[in-house]
Amino acid sequence: MTPTQLRKFDQELSEYLDSMRVGMGRTERRRALGGYVTGLLLDGDRKSIEPTAARLVEEPGQTEAMRQRLLQCVSGASWNDCEMRRRLSLKLQRELPGLEALVLDDTGFPKKGVHSVDVARQYSGTLGRTDNCQVAVSLHLAGEKGSNCIAMRLYLPEEWTHRTGAEGGRQASRRR
Predict the structure, then answer these.
(1) Is the full-model pTM beyond 0.70?
(2) For residues 20 and 7, what is the distance between their CA atoms, to the nearest angstrom?
(3) What percent of the chain lies above the pLDDT cut of 70?
């Protein structure tokens, strides 16, 4: 990427984030959302909160404070994800004229452990085999000039619906 292309991308990303931050309340929360999206775009295999936080700071001693800010933004803040998806859909309709289709797709995310939500040994078209993974179903707006994902949900494997204990049952009910 040339310096000019990088500046253009930075400008477009800033404008996009500004439109998505509306209604998120406090300045710190809005800034954390920008940091979180930036961290996801940076190089790195792991995209969970802690590795993302580490990529966003210059000194390792700042990682924990950044992790707390990102965690508060992503999981603690009250913001309406349906409203954000609605704004994204409207933005895409303006920027991708000639939308022709809604596309449903599935994506597999390979996982090594079993502690992430909805991880199970299941078939993944992305991997082309049965393996330990999460599977998400996504909805895209598509047309001649491109496509964009407007919604994504994790698929709930059957074994997650039969979790024992009250907490497991409540978690499964919320995800359905």
Answers:
(1) no
(2) 20
(3) 91
